[in-house]
Amino acid sequence: MNSWSPEALVQKSQEARDLAYCPYSKFRVGAAVLTSDGTVFTGCNVENASYPLALCAERTAISKAVSEGHRSFKAIAIASDLEDRVISPCGACRQFMREFGSQWDVYLSKSDGSYKLMTVEELLPCSFGPDDLRKGISSAGNSKL
Ligand SMILES: [Zn+2]
Fold this sequence. Notes:
Elements: H1 6-17, E1 29-35, E2 40-44, H2 57-67, E3 73-80, H3 91-98, E4 105-109, E5 115-119, H4 120-123, H5 130-142
Parallel strand pairs: 3-4
Antiparallel strand pairs: 1-2, 1-3, 4-5
This protein binds zinc ion.
């Protein structure tokens, strides 16, 4: 996606939503993540007869990107069939996004394509991330215990 727009990213997330595998919840979700080099990866929710194994659309899309060598993201759009309010990522997905930085954009959309823009930081304030873990290792290494 050389010249991207939020609307185009939301459109991609809606196309992914249409592929959702959600026979149990019947709640379709799609996501489209834009990498720093302009590549877009999409994902949908993938449920399972063993319910806890279900994957969210956001984590599917990000995992696809990471497994193809991308770790730097500009934005992610999320779509569902909700008409009266925007779809909001679950707590697990917020933490999953945070792994790759807190200053990138999340477009929360309604089924008509309208959206609300938030950052990962706004969705998960005071978060725990990779830098915190490195600090923990560092201080443990300096411990005199
Ligand atoms: Zn989720």
